[in-house]
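Write out a record, focusing on structure:
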Amino acid sequence: MESTPAATLPGEFLRFCAVGAIGFIVDAGVLQILTSLLGMDPYSSRVVSFLAAATVTWLLNRRYTFSADEDAHLHREWARYISINAFGGGLNYLIYALCVAQFTLVHRYLFLGVAAGSAAGLLVNYTASKYLVFGLAGRKRA
């Protein structure tokens, strides 16, 4: 029995959130390394950490969340993923930067800003990934 698109949505969205949690760990971890060990500022460091996390989430989402085309040109798909998710990434960065600038606690514990930004971009990036990067192929997964 084939599952309907509505029936696959909760499982697919939960997988997307699990992948996002891994991306959060990568994002916050790279950010911590760049700021604490290498002395970079929290704003430019976040650009680097976000790109690292986005690359990890692209790999995991194409494998576990959506039914990605195995014959896709990976560099093109990655570039499409990064560029299409730039709106959600921009929202993510904006919330992060505002939190770091406005809240001493967030400036001290940067992962709190990463969490706030990630939550803000979640639905935007899920929708963009599902329909604009991986197409409707994600509906094939149960």
